Each structure stands twice: as C-alpha cells, then as structure tokens.
Amino acid sequence: MGCIVQQLLKKKIHIWQIATGHLLAVISQHYQDVTCLKFTSDGSHLVSAGKDNMVLVWALARILQQVDQPYEMVKPLHTMTAHSLPVTDLHIGKCGSRSRLVTVSTDQTCKLWELSSGKLLCSFMSVEPLTSVAMDTAEYHILVGMASGIIQKIQLFQQPIETEIHGDSSGEATLNTFYGHSKSVDCLAVSLDGSLLVSGGADCSVKIWDIVSCQCVKTIDHKGPITNILLSPTPVSLLDTNCQPTITIQPFHRQLYVPAEDKRDTVSTRIFKDENVDISSSNSEGMFYNKVHSGDGSEENSEKTNSELQQEIKHLKRINKQLYEQSIVEILQNIDK
C-alpha cells in the first residue's frame, strides 16, 4: 500500500494515504483515550494502547478492507488486558509481525508479549509508575523510564531473569540504573548499534547515555517538556540541495474515502524522456523511469490524448531496441573473452 499516516483523536484512530490524502479508515475499539500507537517494522501490523488498560494488535490489511466495506466494523487481531491501569508507552521489536512487544503502565508493571500470538511472556514489577520503554535492536535489554526520573535497564539474557525493578534513590548511576532527570522520563530511543540511549522528560532536557556504563555523555536543554524522540539516519535532502521529493504530500481529507463504482484505483508509472542519457553507461540502470505516482484514477491524473500516447509508445520501442542491441554486444564480448 505504501505510505500510510496515522493520527489519534481521543478514542479513534484515523488512517490516511499520503500520496492521495484519502482517509482510508477510522477504527474505534478503545473505551477511553488512546495513549500510544506504533507500526511494526514491516508495516503489516499496528499496536494501540490506551487509558482503558487495553493493548490492541491490528492487521493493516484488515483495516484497509474498510475502504470497500465502510460500514463494517474492523476487529483487532489480539486484545491484551493484563494491565490494571492506563498503558503509558509501548515498544515493538525489529522483526515485523514476529516481533516481541513491550508495554509499560502506571500499574508499575512492564510486560513482554509475543506479538504474533498475543501471549504474555514475562512481567516485571516496579516500585513506582512506569512512563516510557525502549529496547535495543538485538533485544538484550529493556529500558524503562519512571515517574521519578530514573531509567532502569532490564537484562533479558541474565540468568535467572530478575522480575523486580528497583530504582536506586541515591542519585548515583549503578550497573543497571541511569540517574539524571529530575522529573518523569516520557520518551526513550536506542541507537541502531545499541550503544546509546536517548531520553527525554518533563524536566525539558534530552540526555544521551552510554548503555553499558549507564553514564550520561551529553545533555540538550529545551524550552518545554519532551514528548517524543525518533532516531533516524540523516535525510538525503539535508545534504543534497538538488534532492527532489519522491512523493507529494496531498492535503488530508476529512471525509472517509469511498471508491466510486465507475472508477478503478490505479497506480501508474510515469516514464520521462531523457535524450542525454548514454545507453552504454554503467549508471544507466533505472534511468528510463524516475517516479512512481499513486493516483485515484481520476481524469485529471490519467487522461492523455492519442497523439501523446502514440509518441510515448514509439519512444518506448526505440528504448527497447537500444537495450536489445546493447545486450547483444555485451553477450558477444563476453563470449569472445
């Protein structure tokens, strides 16, 4: 399906398609406000949690069926009700639908789940409410933020596994305790190599930690509370001023999208002419197309005159002929060698 964006509006979850701006689905199974929502790494599932103490696992394919059946209610794949108080944060591993899921709650527990089955694998008890959670890529550690500003590291491969989380109130970093925030830790993120932890809290500061030593290596002050953190590779557009966006973000529609019966949704590939391209160059791969555009099948996006279509067909035939001739030359050269 491609680019999907989600939004929380109290008890409801809205899902749009970025390329068209269509509101594809609105799902509502929570009884109170939704507090967190995340996709799996492969985009096949999403997990929501809320103040109703529930954690719901949704299959994106089932949700998108609502486009053709707008009046049919979508049901979650799994419903997890082990928490007794509102869920404050969740983290999904990097293995797609086979990942493990971690949730934390104000009921002072951190729970580890199997996402594919919805089975509870392990539960960790704390002495205070938990406000945020993260896990390294290799899933060696679970890192939980507490309301007091302490961050605790849980060793998943330590034998026996400690199921009780005890924060050190002395103010000094220990083997499994990060101390530095003066108020609640509201968001956590781990670097791709699993060596650094980034935390943000209600004390208006972002801290970067070394996970092994639990030492703070840098502090970045802000003017307000930190509500979310995302670690991402540097976008190409920041380094290359000539970089063009591959997808144009359309205005998001407020009305639920219902396909017209006389129109069929299409995904069209636009091929652009480039007379200056050398067919024999080593960088010629993919040079005959540079954009895939998602459309809704409307006349303004797809209508072309017959003369334009004929010219494009001739151009494609010429390109195919050049490709064929170049392939024959390379094959004969390899045979001679």
Overview of the structural elements:
- A hairpin with a 4-residue loop joins β10 (109-114) and β11 (119-126).
- The chain starts with a strand and ends with a helix.
- The protein is mainly β.
- The longest helix is centred in the last third of the chain and has 31 residues, at 306-336.
- It is globular and about 75 Å long.
- Helices cover 13% and strands 35% of the residues.
- The strands form six sheets. It has a five-stranded mixed beta sheet, with no helix packed on it. It has a four-stranded antiparallel beta sheet with strand order 4-5-6-7.
- The protein has four helices and 22 strands.
- The protein has helices spanning 60-64, 236-239, 299-302, 306-336; strands spanning 4-9, 12-17, 23-27, 34-39, 45-50, 55-59, 78-80, 87-92, 100-105, 109-114, 119-126, 130-135, 141-146, 151-155, 164-165, 177-178, 185-190, 196-201, 205-210, 215-221, 266-270, 291-295.
- Mean pLDDT is 80; it is low at 168-173 and 266-302.
Order of helices and strands: EEEEEEHEEEEEEEEEEEEEEHEEHH
What value does the average pLDDT take? 80
By DSSP (H or I, 4+ residues per run), the number of helices equals 4
Structural class: mainly beta
Distance between the ends: 46 Å
